[in-house]
Fold PaaX family transcriptional regulator C-terminal domain-containing protein.
Amino acid sequence: MSALPNTPPNARAEADGTAPVPVPTRLLVHALVREDGTVDSGELYAVAGLLGMTDQQVRLCVKRLVAEGRFTHEGRGRKALLRAVADATGSITPNVAYVRHAYRQDHGLAAWDGVWHLFAFAIPESSRTSRDTLRDTLRHLGAAPVQSGLYVSANPIEELVEAQARHLDVAHAVTFLTSTDLRVGGVDDPPALAAALWPLDDIAARHDRLAGLAQACLDRLARPERPTGPEQLAMAIQLAAAFTHAMEPDPLLPPELLPRPWPGTHARRLTAACWTALAEAGAHAPAGTPVPRLFVQYEDLLASVPEHLT
């Protein structure tokens, strides 16, 4: 059996010093749920082995998922069949609109208007849970803290922030404003502000790791000896985990605020190419076998992006 393009979790680091993105066992089980809601145990153990997981890890994870009522278990060992009961999506697919916007930015179709969007709030300790949730929402939407209770975004996210504030019943304590001449300390140059407010080096490193994995997968798929079905599934799961790892903390700053070239653009292009190659290879889903939902989710995701952008 051919080696995978990167080292399994908990193994040695990559040649460039970066560690592969870990794939939790629970995520692996969810990623292998097929369109009919089942997971083939033989396939599960085979892919888990390629990802560096032990049979014991898989057995314990399956036992927990069954105990939680998320799956039922039919049969024994590698011939068993897991059947999803509840909340088995285990989605590692980013939001469709978010990814579509990223590809538009990559091609210069979402130019920045020079407006900074600011959000200020003063929520008392008695509503600490709501305050923390609002703060998490702002960070999830790509806003960065300027100082205590003040966040800034380069994208117009007011509608989403206001909806969350109303849901948390703290809308009365939130102030919305915009500025075209933001200055933090003595810094007012937009790219310099972006570099100071967001961890661009860390985000770039995540995209570099994604690009390296996608390129390695493309190289492996181009060989005359095609990877087996389990190997293709392992590639897909690693790629999905790395894509999520790179995209989740990315605030999708306008290109005007980012270093050039920006690694995210290259990584997303390679990711789209890799998913296309995996879909065309097709060994992950032999004829008559239900396709893992993960493939359907990513095919739908990339189908939502105009072809000339990928």
About this structure: The longest strand covers residues 116-121.
